[in-house]
Write a structure and sequence with these properties.
3-stranded mixed β-sheet, 3 strands
């Protein structure tokens, strides 16, 4: 399962390389000639950002106190379950 992303869409705060290995990193720029596909993907990213912020702040995702990759998975599952139960 060694798959690599070809395109990654980031937010405006990203400062770094535009290419990592074979993956192109796209940040939104004020551009009149932007394609509908790129616009849709950047909008999707912008819709997900507030959810990530709520998970970090309200559901203790900013710091993981569990050990290892299994602890990471447990932390995410517990945060997602809590978020689903509260809403």
């Amino acid at each position: 399962m060694d798959k690599e992303a070809k395109n990654v869409f980031l937010d405006r705060g990203y400062r770094g390389p535009k290419m990592i290995n074979n993956t192109a990193l796209h940040t939104p720029k004020p551009d009149k000639d932007i394609t509908q596909t790129k616009r849709k993907r950047h909008k999707r990213r912008a819709a997900i950002e507030p959810i990530i912020g709520h998970l970090k702040h309200d559901y203790r995702m900013s710091r993981n106190y569990l050990k290892g990759t299994v602890g990471d998975a447990i932390n995410v599952i517990l945060a997602a379950a809590t978020m689903n139960l509260k809403e």
